[in-house]
Design a protein that fits this description.
Largest sheet: none
Helix content: over 70%
Radius of gyration: 11 Å
Distance between the termini: 18 Å
Order of helices and strands: HH
Shape: flat
Number of strands: 0
Strand content: under 5%
Oligomer: single chain
Amino acid sequence: MSMLNCTYENTIKALWEDYLKTGTIDQELLKNIVSFEWEKV
């Protein structure tokens, strides 16, 4: 697994854990993740 994939997975995990705690999603972080993944396509 590359370092980038590890960072991506850790970010998704942190986003999910934050959602479970607060009931909300960090919209800016989610936009950044989607934008980053879209650029790879």
